[in-house]
C-alpha cells in the first residue's frame, strides 16, 4: 500500500502532493533438479475455501515480547492446527509488508493447509511485523536490518513460540517478507527446510518507480520526515492513506487483480489498521525504500542463487502484478536457486484474493519437498 505522491526534481528539494489521488504506486545439503516452471489457473474466482471446520480448532492468538534495544515490543501471532493433532511440523507465514500488512492475508491459506490429510500434520504460525498489523508500533527507525533481526529473533530466540523447530521450519513469505527471509538465510542467520516466495518484491513503492538517485533519496527523506512528524505527519497520513476511499482505490488498482473481489469488509478491516497508535512509522520507511532488503535486481537474483542445492525455493509469480513488480518476478523464471516457478492469478496479494489456488500450490510444494521425505 503506498501514498499517492509526485516528486519533482529541481535544484532544491521540493515535494508536491496532489489534491486528487493518482494511480497508487505500491510495489509492492540436498541437490535439487532443474527448475520446474508451471502455470496455474483457476475458475474459482473469489470462492470461499472448503474447509472441514470440525477438524480444526479455533485459531490460537497470542503475543510474544520482542526485546529490541531499549524497547519491549508486543508481537501479535496466530497458530492454526487441527484439533487434538499429534506431533506436527511448523510453517511460518509472514505477511507482505505494506501500510495495511496483516496476518489476515494468510488465514484462509493456513486453515486450508492444516486441515489436509497427509504424511505430515502441519501447524501454521502467522506473525505480524513490528510496526504493522496488530503488533505494537513504536517510533523506531525502521529499516530492512531491523525487520530481518526481528524475523530471525522470532524464529531462534529461546523464548520464541517456534524456537524448538527453528531448524525444521518451512517459511512462506509475501512481497518483501520473502526477500528478507532469503537474505537472512543467505547470511546463515536462519535455517529453513523450504521457502516459498509469493509475489516476491524488493523495491519500495517510490524507489521502484523513481529510482535511487541522490536527488530522489533527498526527497524520500523529506517525505519520510514529514510523515513521522507529530502533527503534520498524521494529517498527511490521514489525507493520503488512512481513509476508506484511498484504501479501496489502491486495492482495486494493484493489490487485487479483480476489483470485484475488493469487499467493504476488507476495506473496513484495513482502514481500522491505519488508525492504530503509531500506524504511520513503519509504512513511511517502506514507502521510501528503507525496508528494501536489496538495492538491485542483481542482488535480488543473488539471494535465490545462493539457495541452490541448499534449500528448495518456490516462486509464485502473479499474472496481474503491476508492470515493474511483475518484471522482477519474471526475472526469477529459470533463475538459479529457484527450484519451482509457478504463475498464479492475482496481483500483489494473491494469498488473500485467491487462497484456494495458493494453498493448493503451496501444499504440492510441501508434498514434493517435505512429505515425500517424511
From TrEMBL:
<dbReference type="GO" id="GO:0009507">
    <property type="term" value="C:chloroplast"/>
</dbReference>
<protein>
    <recommendedName>
        <fullName>AB hydrolase-1 domain-containing protein</fullName>
    </recommendedName>
</protein>
<dbReference type="InterPro" id="IPR029058">
    <property type="entry name" value="AB_hydrolase_fold"/>
</dbReference>
